[in-house]
Amino acid sequence: MPLPAVDVIIPHYRGRERLFKCLESLSNTNYEDFRVLIVDNGSSDGSVKNIVEHFPETEVVRLKDNLGFAGGCNAGVLESNKEFTALLNDDTEVEPDWLKNLVEVILSDDKIAAVQPKLLRTQVKNQFDYAGGVGGMIDVFGYPFCFGRLFETREYDEGQYDNVSDIFWASGSASLFRREMYLAAGGLDEKFFAHQEEIDLNWRLQLMGYKIKAAPAAVVHHYGGGTLSEASFRKKYLNHRNSLMMLGKNYELKTLVWVMPVRFCLEAASIILAVRQGDIKRIAAVLGAAFWNFSHLLVIRWERKRIKTLRKVPDSEIIKRMFAGTVALQYYIFGKKTYNQLINNNYKNN
Fold first, then answer.
1. 199-211, pLDDT tens digit by residue?
2. pTM of the model
3. Which of 174, 219, 238, 255 is most buried, judged by most C-beta within 10 A?
4. Are 115 and 107 in contact (CB under 8 A)?
């Protein structure tokens, strides 16, 4: 029986060389029926000019303005008409069987809403990528990490995470979704613009009763940091702001009552650490993120009401899929640098 058709959606904003490398690798994909949709996010550098001439299997969706990663992906999913849609960063390069392996895993269970490949760093051979490793996890206070990456520590791929596993979030850098479920959950929240919007979406999908899986036999290489560097203020700000917003949106009130005080203590600790390091950008990012969330409480309240209509799974079940504690404490105080070293780990890759 032939595998189903897939639309591969690539949001793009500037950078011709990395886009061409991505499309060249896609042209070698070992999959019979897939289409590539490039979402031109209002780029002005001519990087999508004549794309179709070089890669006739692609189509271009043109947006007047830069809607960010979230807006670009949503526009592509709406343009798609396939049962399955893959999201792919324009700074990735794929192995030939990446799509086949993702599809086979998602077809194994009707309750699987999304799957993620193994993401390796382009710059360093066999090192896991920061943006997803072999699948994303999160602690109860909203700090994300991955199989293969805790904070700034990236492991090397030695086959330690090579089994299909339950994960909490599939990376936006490369992942495959059931389109119907993606849309039913509301898609990526465009208020996030960029960073952690995929975690928020995957959280909602789980609240709706669906599963997220890692498919490590599928391999994608990711350059990373092509849009915003690790040192940029905007990246630090969006990460802090979006993480707080995500907690406020998705947790039940009875959970927020005890989670948020601890989270704000951890935010204060990050400010103290930033002062010691002289990291002015981090200080401004944390304070700016807190101010944005306090000033947008009505927006978050409206989102909570909307998500309540989707919820089928209580927080007690969602928390079982998280790391039961603070991964920051494990990493910075107890020196746990890899996923498998973490204490109180709920999920093991086995």
1. 999 999 999 999 9
2. 0.94
3. 174
4. no
Residue in 239, 240, 119 with CA at minimum distance from that of residue 173: 119
Q: What is the DSSP-derived secondary structure letter of residue 138?
A: E
pLDDT tens-place string over residues 181-236: 999 999 999 999 989 999 999 999 999 999 999 999 999 999 976 555 666 899 89
Q: β-strand 34-41 against 58-63: which pairing, if any?
A: parallel
Question: How many beta carbons lie within 10 A of that of residue 55, not counting itself?
Answer: 18
d(CA 168, CA 205) in angstroms, rounded, equals 10
**Inter-CA distances, 108 with 114, 119, 147, 240, Å:** 12, 21, 22, 36
Q: What token pair was written down for 132? A: 């997803």
The Cα–Cα gap between 57 and 47 comes to: 17
- 242: nearest Cα among 311, 172, 177: 172
CB atoms under 10 Å from CB of 319, counted, come to: 15
Question: Beta 6-12 vs 112-121: how paired, if at all?
Answer: unpaired
Q: H helices of 13-79, where?
A: 16-26, 51-54, 68-79
CA distance 135 to 16: 28
